[in-house]
Amino acid sequence: MSRKPDIRLLAVSEWISETRAGGRCECDGLCGRTHNRLFTDIRCPNRLGHNTVEGGTGTVALIVDRVDEFAGDTDTNLIALCQHCSKRHRNNLAQAAAKRAEQLSIEAQHNPLF
């Protein structure tokens, strides 16, 4: 059984990628990469529907992603990223979550003295 998409979230995603982002990746280093080659603009230069400038080959698609996984789907927590910045951002989040889980595991193994 397929799940029906949430129309409100689709509308917000469309508004973010087309209106707020202007059809351009909103990444300003969130993915871990510095995009300001000419020190004029810190945003990623990839534009929706155009060939990629940074990050690989092909046509750019914008993906509306969460800045913080746990904060919910508010427009301040959602950002339009090209597929390359989105992949790097998700990898960074996964690495941070794995590191935190490892720290919690180590802490759980040590019993407090008191």
Helicity level? 25-40%
Write down the overall geometry: globular
Instruction: Give the biggest sheet.
Output: 2 strands, antiparallel
Termini distance? 53 Å
Spell out the helices and strands N to C: HEEH
Please give the number of β-strands. Answer: 2
The assigned structural class equals: mainly alpha
Strand arrangement in the largest pleated sheet: 1-2
Tally of domains: 1
Number of distinct helices:
2
Description:
- This protein has 114 residues and is mainly alpha-helical.
- It has one domain.
- It contains two helices and two strands.
- It has helices at residues 7-20, 83-109, and strands spanning 62-66, 78-82.
- The protein has a two-stranded antiparallel ribbon with strand order 1-2.
- The radius of gyration is 18 Å and the shape is globular.
- The mean pLDDT is 81.
Task: Give the topology, please.
Layout: H1 7-20, E1 62-66, E2 78-82, H2 83-109
Antiparallel strand pairs: 1-2
What features would you highlight for this structure?
single chain; 114 residues; mainly alpha; two-stranded antiparallel sheet; 2 helices; 2 strands; 36% helix; 9% strand; globular
Question: What's the short story on this structure?
Answer:
The protein is mainly alpha-helical. It has helices spanning 7-20, 83-109; strands at 62-66, 78-82.
